Amino acid sequence: MFKKVYIVDDDEVSIFLAEAIMEAECFAAECKGYLDAQKALNDLLESAHNGNPDALPEIIFLDLNMPFLSGWDFLEALVPVERDLKDRCRIYILTSSVDEQERRRAANTALVAGFLQKPLEDELLLQLKQCS
Amino acid sequence: MFGTTSPSKQTSSDLASLRLERLNRLLFNHYPDAVYTIGMDNCFHTVNHAACQVLQREPNELIGQPFYLSIHPEHWEEAAHYFRAAKDGHAQRYQAVVRSSSGESVFLDVTNFPLKVGQEMVGVFGIAKDITVQKRHEQELLRTTQELQRQNNELELFRKMIAHDFRSPIARLLGLGKLLQKDNVPPASRQTAITALLQSAQQLDAMVQDLNQVLTLHHQGDEPREWCNLSFITQQCLDNLKEEIQSAKATITLHSSSELELFTVKAFLASIIQNLLSNALKYRSKDRLPQISISLTQQGQEVLIAVTDNGTGMDLDQVGPSLFRMYKRFHRDVDGKGLGLYLVKEQVRLLQGRVEVSSAPDLGTTFTVTLPMQS
To answer: If you count residue pairs, one on A and one on B, with CB atoms under 8 Å apart, how many are there?
Structure first.
């Protein structure tokens, strides 16, 4: 079981769904849902700057299509702390989009560990648990 | 003997020169394009038949008159520039627009040569081909290309809409369905899931209806226009929104300078006003009661419809050009489908109007739609 997982999504139902399924699968001890991407970013940057690796989540599920701060903007803002995040924190894109362009873009983004399509499936959570 | 030629030779050379001169004159007069000479004083010296036809003038109305009187005023400057260059001894080829006596614009492909006698510049000799028909075709082609480009962009927008926006409620429905299949879900979560399931289905349904509305809009454009009383239509929109206005405890003020009548597509006009009003109500501030003012004014041959609210407002630098995009939402607390402003923009475009927005966070927003009185 993971210690801490972040879900960053502007859609309340998506956060509820991800949390509910993780709970049912005993996936993480703590799930933190962020409706506000900026807040999630601030928290991450703070933990990274403070050199406090335990405060970092092991997994982040990141939505792409969000107002004000999109998932791509979010990833870009994390580039300066890329080294602090590496090996401590895996970022998975979790989107409802079926746009092939976005999948390709994700494949070329170093910080992205994988591109997942909503809804989050329990088999997938099992796989993630196994490769941890 | 020096300097003399035989009489017989002289006659034949005169004949030849005579023929050439006549030939030149024939050619000059009957050449299908306008041919002319202009003196150093900028006045027509000679004009052929075609030149008179193009300008719809008699030769005596042109000869001795400055050439630029025939040029379209918007093209004076460039015509003067090319003409000076020709007078300086450089042949010029350019496009110009002249005006015939009836005021019609004629596009010309002009070639001007410097006209010299010996070493002395005496004026300009020119040929001008009427290219109005080609020019119109070119403009039409350009318009068609632009329209095609616009439609292509729209198609890409629709593709993105299906890939992103329609997938979103579908993914939720799938996820919620799968969650409900599990037997270890707590009752509270189960209840939330059922509510969310219904909401997502409703959202998907609304999106399908919206899409249908947008696609129908795209098949319109040559809608029948009719005279519409602006205050009357605004009042109708307010009546439609009566419940929302009451529940928001909103104060609405309507300023209308006079009875404004527009010759336009009634359904578009009503939809524009209703969408702006509905937005003003939707994005109200939590801290104060909504005050919405509608101002209807005439400015020349245009009508200004301004809707001002004291709502949440927005930072336009942040929002930028995506404000009018389909399914783009900027307020996460409000149940917006994000289609309203897109519809406003499209309908205003179809009515050859424009829409402007000014806004400040936490102060409010003003949308101003400008429509031609007759579109």
So the answer is: 73
Cα A102 to Cα A109: distance, rounded to the nearest angstrom: 11
User: How close does chain A come to B179, measured CA to CA in Å?
Assistant: 7
Q: Which residues of A touch B318 (CB under 8 A)?
A: 68
Domains of chain B by residue range: 31-130, 132-219, 222-375
Q: Is the pLDDT of residue B15 over 70?
A: no
- The residue whose two tokens read 């403009």 is B139
* Domain B222-375: CATH superfamily, name plus number: Histidine kinase-like ATPase, C-terminal domain (3.30.565.10)
Token pair belonging to B357: 């927005």
| DSSP code, position B165 | I
Separation CA B266–CA B256 (nearest Å): 18
On whether the pTM is more than 0.80, the answer is no
What is the rounded average pLDDT of the residues B67-80? 90
**Contact A98/B167, CB-based, under 8 Å?**
yes
Q: How far apart are CA B212 and CA B235, in angstroms?
A: 27
Residue in the structure block whose two tokens are 């009451």:
B246
